[in-house]
C-alpha cells in the first residue's frame, strides 16, 4: 500500500490539548463511531487485510462498515440480498453514501417509489452537491470491481426516461422529472464502461 493511500493518512490526530484518556472507553461506541472513510475508498482492504476490524465495526453498527459490507456483498460476492440489507441498514443509520446507493439500486431494480424516497432523503432539490459527492465516492469504491452491469438496470433506466423535454446530458440542471433518470443513467453508463 503506497504512502498516499495509507490507513494512517485518514486518521485524525488532534493536538495534545484535546487529548482524552480512552483507556476505559466503551468498545461499542468506539467501533460504532470510528470513521472508515479510507475503507469506503478501498473496500477490498477490509475484505482482505482488515476482516476482523470490519466484523467488530459491523457488530457495533458502524454505518460505514455496513455500507462497505453492502458493496462487497452486492458487487463482489454477488449476494444481492445480503448486500441490499447492509446498504439499507447503512442508510437507516443516516449514512449519505448508503442512502444514495440504496436509492440508486432500488431504481435500477425497478422499485421506483422506494428508490426515489431514499434519493430524496439527500435533499437534492436544495443541495445537488451531496448527490454529486456520493456519486464520486461510489465510483471510487467500485473502481477495482469489474462487470457490474445487468440488463435489468438498463431496462429500468429506459422506463424512467422523462416524457418532458429536459436536457438529459446536463447533470447541473435537474428537475423532478429528470433527476432520477439522470442518476440511474450515470450508473448504467458507468457499469457498461466497466465491462
TrEMBL record:
Domain (At2g35280-like TPR) ranges: 43-127
InterPro entries, per database record: At1g67623-like, At2g35280_TPR_dom
SUPFAM superfamilies for the chain: HCP-like
Name of the protein this chain belongs to: At2g35280-like TPR domain-containing protein
Amino acid at each position: 500500500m503506497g504512502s498516499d493511500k495509507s490507513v494512517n493518512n485518514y486518521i485524525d490526530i488532534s493536538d495534545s490539548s484535546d487529548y482524552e484518556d480512552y483507556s476505559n472507553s466503551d468498545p461499542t461506541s468506539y467501533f460504532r463511531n470510528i470513521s472508515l472513510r479510507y475503507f469506503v475508498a478501498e473496500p477490498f482492504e477490509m475484505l482482505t487485510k482488515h476482516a476482523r476490524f470490519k466484523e467488530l465495526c459491523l457488530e457495533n453498527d458502524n454505518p460505514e462498515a455496513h455500507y462497505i459490507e453492502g458493496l462487497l456483498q452486492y458487487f463482489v460476492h454477488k449476494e444481492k440480498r445480503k448486500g441490499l440489507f447492509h446498504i439499507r441498514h447503512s442508510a437507516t443509520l443516516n449514512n449519505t453514501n448508503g442512502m444514495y446507493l440504496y436509492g440508486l439500486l432500488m431504481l435500477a431494480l425497478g422499485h421506483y417509489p422506494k428508490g426515489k424516497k431514499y434519493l430524496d432523503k439527500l435533499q437534492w432539490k436544495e443541495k445537488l452537491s451531496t448527490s454529486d459527492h456520493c456519486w464520486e465516492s461510489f465510483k471510487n469504491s467500485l473502481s477495482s470491481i469489474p462487470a457490474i452491469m445487468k440488463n435489468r438496470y438498463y431496462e429500468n433506466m429506459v422506463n424512467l426516461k422523462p416524457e418532458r423535454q429536459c436536457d438529459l446530458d446536463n447533470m447541473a440542471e435537474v428537475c423532478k422529472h429528470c433527476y432520477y433518470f439522470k442518476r440511474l443513467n450515470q450508473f448504467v453508463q458507468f457499469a457498461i464502461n466497466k465491462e
